[in-house]
Write a structure and sequence with these properties.
Layout (H helix, E strand, L loop, with lengths): L1 H15 L3 H41 L1
């Protein structure tokens, strides 16, 4: 009887103490944060870069 109890106790503990889902959520949040930073950088620097390329293009003509 004790062996059955130990088996079920270990089985339930292994199912409850599963950290894979938490790691997946952390990675998803990290990817989302990186995407937001990249979008913000392109938005802020995109206009400046476009102006510089236009300036260079007009000076070449």
């Amino acid at each position: 009887m004790t062996t059955t109890y130990q088996f079920f106790s270990a089985w339930i503990t292994s199912r409850v103490d599963n950290d894979r889902g938490a790691s997946l959520v952390e990675y998803a949040l990290l990817v989302a944060l990186i995407a937001v930073v990249c979008i913000a950088a392109v938005t802020l620097l995109g206009q400046t870069a476009s102006e510089k390329f236009s300036e260079v293009s007009s000076n070449l003509d």
